[in-house]
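User: Good morning. I'm curious how phosphoenolpyruvate would be positioned relative to this chain. Could you predict the structure with it bound?
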Amino acid sequence: MKQYKGKGIEKGIAMGPVFFYEKKEQKQRRPAADSVAELLRFADAKNKARKQLKDLHDHAQRELGLESAAIFEAQQTMLDDEDFNAYVSGVINSEKLSVESAVAAAGEHFAGRFSRMEDPYLKARSTDVKDVSGLLLRILGGGQEEDGPKEPVILVAEELTPSETMRFDRSKLLGIVTYLGSADSHAAILARTMKLPAISGIEIDKKWNGLKAIVDGHSGMLTIDPDKTLTEEMEKQRLADEALEKEMQLLKDRETLTKGGRRIQICANIGGVEDVSEALENGAEGIGLFRSEFLYLKSDGFPSEEEQFAVYKDVLQRMEGKRVVIRTLDLGADKQAAYFRIGREENPAMGYRGIRICLDQPDIFRTQLRAILRASAFGNPVIMFPMIVSMEEFRQCKQHVEEIKAELKEAGIPYKEDVELGVVIETPAAALISGELAKEADYFSVGTNDLTQYTLAADRGNVKLDHVYDPHHPAVLSLIRMTVENGHAAGIPVGVCGELAADTELTRAFLEYGVDELSVIPAYILPLRNEVIHLD
Ligand code: PEP
Ligand code: MG
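Assistant: Good morning! Here's the predicted structure, ligand included:
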């Protein structure tokens, strides 16, 4: 028996034989004198790829739903991406190379570019680029596909792209182990949607092929050739997981009431409309944090008012009147968009970011506010402002909202007149002046990720500071408590939306402070509800 520690991507236990999946390498740097013929082959391959992606899209939609299918829609648009196409034709024309060589080079170039990005979402898109170029190369090479497993297996691979993940017959997959692939990669998202226990970060070995293995997605441990004791222990865990899953499902449509009868709202944090189904499937009572910057990070330029309006409207309608807290653009620091150059800063986390950018560049801000206010006619949004450190900033935000409302009224465009305005309490300054802010705001949500980093002067992304970055630190907790007290003194509700909201070790403390709402990623909603209903 041998054990390897990786990172759990999707919880659960899977046991079965290993199927070692190896991609057929298609590296070729072949010269081709007739560039026109190569360009025609490229166009033909793209047409075929489009058709295959459409089939994958329809298959994913039938099996897994709209959100998973959207991955393949996005891949279809990559086929038409101007930069990608220009790169391929450039290599064919100027280097007189074959279309295979050009596609391989373009794939490597753009995948490399994404993989160097800071933002985990964009970083993970590197696999999608590889997926699309791999598909084109397979088509150009005659379309041979790697054989999939014939019996239920644990799939072990260096890396899995979304189309590979989808191409395997779901009924033949028990679990997934990869070396590459972050929790944000699309393949990981698909594994999660398919509820397949998954681990990444394991140095895989071809010799495991056919051997019995256990994937423990809770601890991130892979065991090859497990002994009897471990197998029995893991089987017990698997059955316990199943029982818990059933129990959790019963909580899905229930209100969250403590034993003493106090109502707590458990809401979802989302990054886009594609997360709404997962939020609803997990019994979200509202959206407590819509990180709107993901709209900006996913697009090639600032999304227009119409584009944003369509997304906000869609989310609001799908939430059917439940509260949707839309946080205005929080770019900067760890969230950089390639088209929006902030420039080099000594200290980006304390630099030009969030509301500072919006108040400094009102055109960007007002486009977003107009889109949200127009969408407000279709549901119940709260507009929430990030990175506030002063009354002045919050008043300026309110002023912009009032001006836009007046513009809409004048133009006869409907909007919700009493749309609530909230503040993310994520700087010590905001917590310390929360008494003042509460008199003018309708809602607070504590952003514990940044509140911890600023209170403890410890970069939230620096792994060397893991021991310093302690959200349980009494200084952080007392700022949270102070915020709730000040909010309640002014009669406004207070939520917590940073990662700490999901930390069940603190749920009791949050309830004691009087926190009204906890907003977490969808997968944590039911376990958290289970925790709250067992507390006083
Ligand atoms: C936070 O800072 O806690 C928060 C919720 O926002 P983000 O993680 O997006 O900065
Ligand atoms: Mg924050």
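The two ends are 45 Å apart (CA to CA). DSSP finds 20 helices and 16 strands in the chain.
Let me know if you'd like a different ligand tried.
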